[in-house]
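It would be a great kindness if you could assist me with a short task in structural biology. I am sending you one protein, given as its amino acid sequence and as whole-number tokens for its backbone shapes. I would ask you to consider whether the tokens describe a fold that such a sequence might reasonably adopt. The full record is reproduced below for your convenience.
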Amino acid sequence: MKFTYVYHSCYVLETDTCSVIFDFYKDSGELWNKGFVHDELLSDSSKPLYVLSSHVHPDHFNASVLSWRAAGRNITYILSKDILDNKRAETADDTVFLDKGDEYKDENLYVKAFGSTDVGVSFFLKLDGKSIFHAGDLNNWHWKDESTAEEVAEAEAFYHRELSDITREVKHLDLAIFPVDPRLGTDYSRGAREFLSQIEVDTFAPMHFGEAYSTIAQFKEVTDAANCKYLIPINKGQSFFI
């Protein structure tokens, strides 16, 4: 399975049977429509493409993805229902909208939507015999350095409730894609550390970090302690094989 970091929270998974792109914001090149996605992924029409977007925020959903269907590709859009509610996409034969608890399944892919601590959903997938999780904006967003103790406690309780919902059903993941966002300050990795303490993860990939490569590299201490492999992007468009 080929796994490519595009930018921010966007990764691409490619198997022999299909390709999956998560939370496209902009491409890996200098222009939003130049780079791995437009120059490689979209040029391959040999297998189905699944486009997943976890919520309506512009750094997770770029409505230009809907124009990709014009090329005649075999595309299925699996979008959070808040994208429909905010009128950023319309109902269509090739589009599925998921709310928390909803599922999608076909011959290639199984998807279940779990909750988020922001808007939209997170995604649990079964693909090519692997279990995969993309968090969207699910995280312990407590901004400890600039929040009151009450705000921190409320945010943490919210995250722990959503994490509990996931762990009731998900005990093991072959791949977890989860925010490690330096903008959170002191406890930028707290949500990811708690996630790894609750679920057995074989391979972990950070997201929501932009190009803060040196900061996210420090998270390797945590993944080492959790006995899981850490994929550390050092540039946009970098591919791994898992």
Remarks:
- The mean pLDDT is 94.
- The first helix runs from residue 36 to 41.
- The domain at 2-241 is CATH 3.60.15.10 (Metallo-beta-lactamase; Chain A).
- The chain has one domain: 2-241.
